[in-house]
């Protein structure tokens, strides 16, 4: 049984000593206080653990250190295995939330009896903290819509496990989150969005999503291998994906 009101926040991290403190603080600053923060260290080689240690005085935080590097999908899955809340949210160790993020999304997901909600978000430059642009989102999206427009940012998602049951992310680096949302929507219908930024996504040279060609390859693979689309269906969805990706960056 899940805690009926609690949000379990899953934060994977790897060599995040420079940024993880601000990410943790953005979770602890939420106006929605009934939360559990699970930080999963994916075998960091820097001082990430030392940066996390002072925050463990807050009883809402659980810190898990993996014995070997397993990748972000497995780190999130381990976090979910230890989660208690009805609701699941994700925040990587270099991204940030606005303070009302969880409050507004819990209200929305309950109002619409939805399996999943998401929001717009802003990107910001790693070196200067300068805001780059706002990624706008539709008010609703279903499975077919998400196939053609992979617009849902992992850092903006809130999932209601009383609707979805327990779930795991597949090991598709850079595409594990979208594959998960597709699975949820294929089984559970429509997701609802808030077209106002509730999170900040850090853009860095090492960001997986910053490598456009590799991301396109992973998206094609996701269509074929996890969604089992035919070649023709994949071509149609991929062409829409490319068009929407270009629009998102204009």
From TrEMBL:
Keywords: Transferase. It holds the Pfam family Glycos_transf_2. Residues 8-135 form the Glycosyltransferase 2-like domain. GO terms for molecular function: hexosyltransferase activity. CDD domains: Glyco_tranf_GTA_type. Belongs to the glycosyltransferase 2 family. This is Glycosyltransferase family 2 protein. It comes from Listeria booriae. The lineage of its organism: Bacteria, Bacillati, Bacillota, Bacilli, Bacillales.
């Amino acid at each position: 049984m899940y805690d009926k009101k609690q949000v379990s926040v899953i934060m994977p991290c790897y060599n995040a000593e420079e940024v993880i403190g601000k990410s943790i603080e953005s979770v602890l600053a939420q106006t929605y206080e009934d939360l559990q923060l699970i930080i999963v260290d994916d075998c960091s080689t820097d001082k990430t653990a030392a940066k996390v240690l002072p925050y463990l005085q807050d009883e809402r935080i659980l810190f898990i250190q993996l014995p070997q590097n397993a990748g972000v999908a497995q780190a999130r899955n381990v976090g979910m295995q230890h989660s208690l809340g009805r609701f699941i949210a994700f925040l990587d160790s270099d991204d940030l939330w606005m303070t009302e993020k969880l409050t507004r999304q819990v209200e929305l997901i309950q109002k619409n009896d939805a399996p999943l909600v998401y929001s717009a978000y802003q990107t910001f430059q790693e070196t200067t903290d300068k805001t780059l642009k706002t990624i706008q989102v539709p008010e609703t999206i279903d499975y077919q819509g998400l196939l053609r427009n992979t617009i849902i940012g992992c850092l903006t998602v809130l999932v209601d496990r009383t609707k979805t049951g327990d779930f795991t992310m597949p090991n598709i680096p850079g595409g594990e989150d979208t594959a998960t949302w597709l699975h949820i929507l294929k089984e559970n219908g429509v997701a609802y969005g808030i077209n106002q930024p509730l999170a900040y996504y850090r853009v860095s040279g090492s960001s997986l999503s910053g490598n456009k060609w590799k991301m396109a390859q992973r998206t094609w693979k996701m269509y074929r291998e996890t969604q089992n689309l035919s070649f023709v269906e994949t071509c149609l969805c991929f062409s829409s994906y490319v068009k929407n990706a270009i629009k998102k960056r204009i």
